[in-house]
Specification:
This protein is α+β, with helices and mostly antiparallel strands. It folds into two domains: 94 residues; 164 residues, OmpA-like domain (60s Ribosomal Protein L30, Chain: A, 2-Layer Sandwich). It contains six helices and five strands. The chain has a five-stranded mixed sheet with strand order 1-2-5-3-4. Helix 1 packs antiparallel against helix 3 and helix 3 crosses helix 4. The radius of gyration is 62 Å and the shape is rod-shaped. 18% of the residues are buried.
Length: 283
């Protein structure tokens, strides 16, 4: 083989080698290009998914924020209602405490009043028994003793105290009044009312113009005996005359008229403290 042929063969080999190398590079480059294209598509897909997820997440986040706002508003409303309810409860509790205090004060006042009433009843009962014991020796047609409406009544007939048509207390009447005065002098907290009564038979004399006069003067005669002779406190006694206008029996019989001709000594325990307490309690 000549020199020229060798050169040609060498050139051919180099060209062939160059083609072989270029093909491999091409294949490698092509593979890289395809991989890049795949990667780009995959990344695009991933980016698409991420965008969708982000949008979904944003929607959920917006929904959560909206729910949170509603919840906050509800909480504020409940807090306001609770605060209002607490204020109302405080007012109610304060009112309740005041009412309970008023009730306790009222119950205390009632208990005190009841105690005073019970004491008054006992006082009247003791007074009644004392008067009955003091006047034990007199008959029922001469005098009677009774309790009525919290007062003690001693009704003395006119024949025990006076002569017919007169207003001067006789000796027997003085003795009866003396026994009664012993009880009255021990009772400093009672009021004593002396009431004169007549029947319906008219009277007109030089001394008495009518039954009013007779009843009043008989009452004052009894007062003088009690105060001047037996020392009963004059400030405790009040005389008055009822005439024929407050009978205890009919005036159509002798017995009825006799009962109506009487002088009543009425003993009433003073109720000043009780009335004062009633006024203070607003009853």
């Amino acid at each position: 083989m000549n020199k020229k042929s060798l050169l040609v063969l060498g050139a051919a080999v180099m060209l062939l080698s160059s083609c072989v190398v270029s093909k491999k590079k091409f294949e490698i480059a092509e593979a890289g290009r395809l991989a890049a294209l795949y990667s780009r598509d995959s990344l695009a897909d991933l980016l698409g998914i991420s965008r969708n997820d982000c949008a979904l997440f944003s929607e959920r986040l917006n929904a959560l924020e909206a729910d949170t706002t509603l919840l906050k508003n509800s909480i504020r409303n409940y807090q306001q209602l609770l605060a209002s309810g607490q204020n109302e409860n405080q007012k109610l509790n304060a009112n309740l405490a005041q009412k309970i205090s008023e009730l306790q004060d009222r119950e205390k006042t009632i208990a005190e009043l009841q105690k005073m009433i019970d004491q008054q009843k006992k006082k009247v009962k003791d007074l009644l028994n004392s008067v009955k014991d003091a006047l034990l020796g007199f008959s029922s047609d001469e005098l009677t003793v009774r309790e009525e409406d919290g007062k003690v009544y001693v009704a003395m007939s006119d024949k025990l105290l006076f002569e017919s048509g007169k207003a001067i207390v006789n000796q027997q009447g003085r003795e009866a009044l003396g026994k009664l005065a012993q009880v009255l002098n021990k009772q400093t907290d009672i009021d004593v009312y002396i009431e004169g009564h007549t029947d319906n038979v008219p009277i007109k004399t030089a001394v008495f113009q009518d039954n009013w006069d007779l009843s009043v003067i008989r009452a004052t005669s009894v007062v003088r005996i009690l105060t001047e002779t037996y020392g009963v406190n004059p400030l405790q006694i009040l005389p008055c005359g009822r005439g024929e206008f407050k009978p205890v029996d009919v005036n159509t019989t002798v017995e009825g008229k006799a009962r109506n001709r009487r002088t009543e000594i009425i003993m009433a325990p003073r109720l000043d403290k009780l009335f004062k307490m009633l006024e203070e309690s607003g009853q």
